[in-house]
Structure formats: C-alpha cells, structure tokens
Design goal:
Length: 140
C-alpha cells in the first residue's frame, strides 16, 4: 500500500494549514476566552469548499474523499480545536444525517447552503426527563 499523499492532497494540506495559521491562530485564544463563535470563519471555509468537503457536487459539496476530510480536520485542529470540532459537527453530525437519511429534495434544499457556509449546522441531543419521583428524592 502507498501511504503517500497525492499532489492534490499535499496542496489541500498546505492550503488549509496556511488558512488556519493566518485566519485562526491570531484569534484562537481570544475566541476561547470570550466564548465567541467566529461565524465569519465558517463563511470563509464554505467559500473554500470545506463546509461540504465530502458531499457530492450535485448537493453543493466538493466531492472530496474521507482522507481529504481527515486532512482538513487535522490542519484545522492543530491550530484551533474548537473550530475543528464545529466543522466536524457541521460536516458529520448535521450534514451527515441529512445526506444519509434525507430525501433528495431535503438534500438539495439543506446541503447546498450548508456546504457553502451560508448556514452552520449543529446537532441536538436530549436525554429523556427523569420521572418526577427521581428528582424529589423519593423511590419510584
């Protein structure tokens, strides 16, 4: 097996690394300290095709491979783990579920603006409420 990156993958790695160094590194600590969400960064990542990196072009994505996606995540995370985690949740938890379980119309409606970075996706999970007796200290 050949574990070397292709020329295109090396260019992707270089491009994302340069973006992370110039756009993330100077602000990363401040964003964390102020608990800010740098929305404009996600618009820029969308413009680079990285907010829909693995989705097919017919849904607005870049159509890149899972390895390409891993390269993107690695380069973002080496500079700002918070931004990387948000990109991961956007690409996998939000967009991933739409891509896997959505209708064709839902994919066309939602994936394209997500891939362009016009929208930032998230994923919500809620645990069921405990029975009232469990919170009151009484046995059920």
């Amino acid at each position: 097996m050949d574990f070397n990156l292709s020329d295109e993958q090396r260019l992707l790695k270089k491009t994302v690394r340069e973006f992370a160094e110039s756009e993330l590194r100077p602000h990363s600590r401040e964003w964390d300290e102020k608990q800010e969400f740098p929305r404009e960064v996600f618009s820029k990542l969308g413009g680079m095709g990285l907010m829909g990196v693995v989705w097919p072009p017919e849904y607005g994505g870049s159509g890149l491979s899972t390895l390409d996606y891993a390269i993107v995540m690695e380069e973002l995370a080496r500079v700002d783990a918070g931004v990387a985690l948000s990109v991961a949740a956007h690409n996998s938890l939000c967009s991933g579920h739409i891509f896997l379980a959505g209708t064709d119309e839902q994919k066309r409606r939602f994936l394209a603006p997500l891939a362009r970075g016009e929208r930032v996706g998230c994923w919500g999970l809620r645990a069921p409420r405990p029975p009232p007796c469990a919170t009151a200290g009484a046995g059920c």
